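Working notes for the structural subgroup meeting. M.R. asked for a predicted model of this chain before we commit to crystallization trials. I am recording the input and output together here so anyone reviewing the notebook later can reproduce the run.

Input as submitted:
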Amino acid sequence: MAGVYLSYPFCAQKCTYCNFASDVQPRGLETQYRETLQAELASTEWPWRPETIYLGGGTPSLLDPIALAELLDLIPGKPWVEATMEAAPGSIDENKARVWTDCGINRVSLGVQSFDSRELARAGRKHSAEIVEREIAILRTAGIANFNIDLIAGLPGQTRESWSRSLEWIGKLEAPHVSVYMLEVDEDSRLGSEVLAFGKRYGASDVPSEDTIAEFYELAVERLAAMGILRYEISNFSRPGFESRHNLKYWRHEPYLGFGADAHSFDGRCRRQNAETAKEYVERYAKGLPFTTSTADAEPGEELFLGLRLDQGIEADWSPYADAVQRFEEDGLLERTGNRLKLTPRGVLLSNEVFAEFV
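Returned structure, recorded in token form:
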């Protein structure tokens, strides 16, 4: 069964490492955006009954509880098998958690990124490890025991010792799911732009080397496995039964509908994308224009490279890419059994090099 993604690209502050289409926005635009998002949902002819919902951003946990309820009431299928809310630590209280549960939210993804106070301050985050601990207790009391913790390997000033302490907190909190992302250095974030310019702002000169970041990632794989939290996708780890049902749809090439700015939809054959910014999304609606800005057939190798993100790999017809597959096998990046392909441990670290062949 398919899923639904809701985009809420509003934040209380813009983090230095963030390269998403989200930002601090005028209050008036936020109100217009919610109204437009409601209109898009209300006008939808549902081709199926959604099984999963994911509210991403941005920081959808900042949504007024009444506004959240109004949005979710427009989506059929409640109670959903899985309904995830992305949340910034420091934005959760007992009332919100109770309302989320009443609305059908049964999973929360916390953008923790680090449990080290110095790393958090340099990244522009205002929470602490103690705030995370307190808010997870609030979620559990409200009946939300399924939660994810995001961590970033490679923040400015991060050391093996500070990274190890962050991983220790995962065990202390008994997290059922963890996402580990290696820092992306590109021009879409303030930190990335500064690193590329060889500058010093935002701690750019203290970003660990690529080799060190890879070591941090491998340490996470090892330490999380020892806790019973196993990798099932390049960046995602869970205890058995706590894999993200919604995100698995992306990697398994299953259909989903996206609503809001920069949201993508996929019907199993074609993709479409909404206007990229909140402002453009609202303006298109005000002018009576379609929300969607582009429609395209999925890339021929898309199913293959998405499936390769999974730890189990993918069983598919890869014969059009036989030469590339053989080369990656010889280089120790891919291994195959019959028609099933999967990345090797070394291939995981060099996955972008492999995926480029299939896109």
